[in-house]
Amino acid sequence: MPKILIADDEPHIRLLLEQTLEELEDEGVELFIVNNGEDALNAIKSEKPELVFLDVMMPKMSGFDVCHAVKNDLGMKDIYIIILTAKGQEFDKQRGSDVGADIYITKPFDPDAILKKAKEILKV
């Protein structure tokens, strides 16, 4: 069963992502939601989601640090990480690339584009 992790400390962003992606549950996709970086890393280790939507600015551990830990320290290169953030400067995008993010998307984002990308990645 494919799994998606949503990691964001903003309740309205978590809800928007959940509502956007919940139709994938009909395809057998399981959604997990956390609100800080530490819980995100623990959920990635335990659940091994195929896709992660990761905010950058979160309590306990930044999304950049989580991504680096997953892709580099743990070597979990097969987990697709999409960084979703309000930080849209070129420096931030480069940092996202440096830590191993597969895609860097700035907020506000298009929910339809998010759903389309998730379907593409999970092949559903």
What layout of secondary structure does this protein have?
Elements: E1 3-7, H1 11-21, E2 30-34, H2 37-47, E3 51-55, H3 63-73, E4 80-85, H4 90-99, E5 103-106, H5 111-122
Parallel strand pairs: 1-2, 1-3, 3-4, 4-5
Q: What would you say this structure looks like, in words?
A:
The protein is α/β, with parallel strands linked by helices. It has a single domain (3-122), classed as Response regulator (Rossmann fold). 44% of the residues lie in helices and 20% in strands. It is built from five helices and five strands. A five-stranded parallel beta sheet has the order 2-1-3-4-5, with helices on both faces. Helix 1 links the parallel strand 1 (3-7) and strand 2 (30-34). Helix 2 runs parallel beside helix 3 (63-73) and helix 3 (63-73) runs parallel beside helix 4. The longest helix has 12 residues, at 111-122. The chain is globular.
- The rounded distance between the terminal residues' Cα atoms is 11 Å
Order of helices and strands: EHEHEHEHEH
Lateral arrangement of strands in the main beta sheet:
2-1-3-4-5
- Specify the CATH homologous superfamily: Response regulator
Strand tally: 5
Assign a percent range to the helix content: 40-55%
